[in-house]
Specification:
Blueprint (H helix, E strand, L loop, with lengths): L1 E6 L6 H12 L2 E4 H10 L3 H12 L5 H14 L5 E5 L5 H13 L6 E6 L2 H15 L6 H15 L1 H7 L4 E5 L4 H15 L1
Parallel strand pairs: 1-3, 1-4, 2-3, 4-5
Helix pairs in contact: 1-9, 2-3, 4-5, 6-7
Bound molecules: BIS(adenosine)-5'-pentaphosphate and magnesium ion (MG).
Length: 190
């Protein structure tokens, strides 16, 4: 299996690039943000609880997201692999992912992190807020999300760095240019 962690701050292009990657490598895309937003849309108990946290730009509990991931892994364990988008976001999530993959005799192949400066992140997300109306794409929540990323999520890079699996990629440029950079990295590890 090819199992990729696609990492990076809010607005760095994880979702956009994941769409391209899953087409080329026939992987299953697991975005915890998308999974949470479908719970919100379906107005489940979990969704109602998550919405308030997401609108503040904070992290939903590890327990909730890990449960969602385990379910997805189990459903697709006979496929070609997974792309994890927006997960893991804490060291505990990274450990839980490792355990869950070990249970199906798998491991992470590579972690690719998209580097994009803060001004560009804010520009992209404010723009998406105007066009698509995602409720956490307002300036206050955008800044909070980036702060949370810097404090709570950056340490995850050190976890993969230790295993020599962390590869930073320049996330500035056209979507095609960035995709080509990502493909180069994947093909080296695969
Ligand atoms: P999540 O949905 O993961 O959001 P995020 O990390 O804030 O990132 P985004 O989805 O906003 O950005 P992206 O990197 O996918 O960029 P995109 O491709 O969309 O999480 C949302 C919330 O859910 C969290 O705040 C948290 O509350 C909760 N949550 C989720 N996972 C969790 C977890 N594991 N643990 C705990 N809580 C969790 O691109 C952004 C915009 O830029 C788009 O409009 C796009 O068209 C544009 N764009 C993309 N590429 C380019 C380019 N090269 N040039 C110009 N524009 C571009
Ligand atoms: Mg996304």
């Amino acid at each position: 299996m090819l199992n990729i962690v696609l990492f990076g701050p809010p607005g760095s292009g994880k979702g956009t690039q994941a769409q391209r990657i899953i087409q080329k490598y026939e992987l299953v895309h697991i975005s915890t943000g998308d999974l949470l937003r479908s719970e919100v849309a379906a107005k489940t108990d979990l969704g109602m609880k998550a919405k308030a946290i997401m609108d503040r730009g904070e992290l939903v509990s590890d327990e909730i997201v890990i449960g969602m991931i385990r379910k997805k892994l189990d459903e697709h364990k006979d496929g070609k692999g997974f792309i994890f988008d927006g997960f893991p976001r804490t060291i505990d999530q990274a450990r839980a992912l490792r355990n869950a993959l070990t249970d199906i005799d798998e491991r992470i192949t590579v972690m690719i992190s998209l580097d994009v400066p803060r001004e560009e992140l804010v520009r992209r997300l404010e723009n998406r807020g105007r066009e698509e109306g995602r409720s956490d794409d307002n300036l206050e929540t955008i800044n909070k999300r980036i702060d949370v990323y810097e404090k709570q999520t950056i340490p995850v890079t050190f976890y993969y760095e230790k295993m020599r699996k962390h590869v930073p990629v320049n996330g500035l440029g056209t979507i095609d240019q960035i995709f080509k950079r990502i493909v180069k990295v994947i093909d080296k590890f695969n």
